[in-house]
Each structure stands twice: as C-alpha cells, then as structure tokens.
Amino acid sequence: MGSHVKRLLSGVSDHGRRHLTEVETDLIQTGLLLEEAIEKLTFNFMAIHQAVEAEQETIQLLLAGGTPTAEQKAKLEELHAQVGNHVNAAITSMQFQDMTSQLIDRTLKRVTGLREFLGTLGAHGAEMLPESDNEEIVALLGKVSMALAIQSLELRSVLRKAVSQKHLESGDIELF
Fold it and tell me: Is this model's pTM higher than 0.70 or not?
C-alpha cells in the first residue's frame, strides 16, 4: 500500500510543480512584454512630442502671416511623416494587450485547473473511511490516481502554448 500512496503523492507533487512552473513562466513573460511595450510607447510618445515641438516654429511663422522657406516647408513635411511613423509604432507596441491577455487567461486556467485537481484529491480522500482495509484503500488510491491523471491530461490539452513571442518586434504574432 505504501507504494500506491507514494505514487499518488509523487504524481500530485509533479503535477502541481509543473503547473506552478508554467504559471511562473507566463507571469515572467507577461512582465517582460509589459516592460518592453511601455518602453516602446514612452519612446514613441516622446518622439511625437519632439516632432510637434520642432514644427512649432514654422506654425508660429504661419500664424504670424509669414511665408515659410522651401527648407521650412520640407522640414514640416518631414516632421509630419515622422509623427505618422511614431504613431504607427506606438499602435504596434500596444499589441502587448492581446498577448498579455492571453497569458493572463492561460495562467488563470492553470490555477483553476490546479484547484480542481486538488479538489478532486480532497473529494476522493473523503471517501476513505478510518475502518477501510488495505484492499479498499489500494482500490481508492488507484481510482484517485486515474482521475487525477485524466484531469491533468485534459488541462494540458486545453493549455496549448499559443503565445510564443517574447519581443514585440520579432515578427508575426499568433494570437488566438
């Protein structure tokens, strides 16, 4: 009977450790995505601000009724294009919301699955009576082990690794 208990406890420990490691990995990846996205957003918004500031001299000249030089006109057009590029880059950087939502959703599913897994263990454990003989205990342990193995496989199949990108500029992003 000791080997059945040992196998059950070892399985519970391995399952729990595996899912908690995945939760930790997802949370670290979420943190990295948020950090990188915030850096990119900050850079692009500061670049937009600088471009708008650089346009201000020519705008003041126009407001005063002056005529900008050809160089000032070219610079204004260049700054306009820069603002558009920085806005597009900022919007691209906001893709982090989709990826972090997936990571958080997957982490919640893992935690819920682990809670259900432990609930199954508790429910089956409640079936064990103090007066149970060794055969009944071995049968119950086998039933618990089988239920937990099935639950573990079901949880793993639901939690495919859909979010694999670690950096926003790395190319295509698989979202759903």
Answer: no
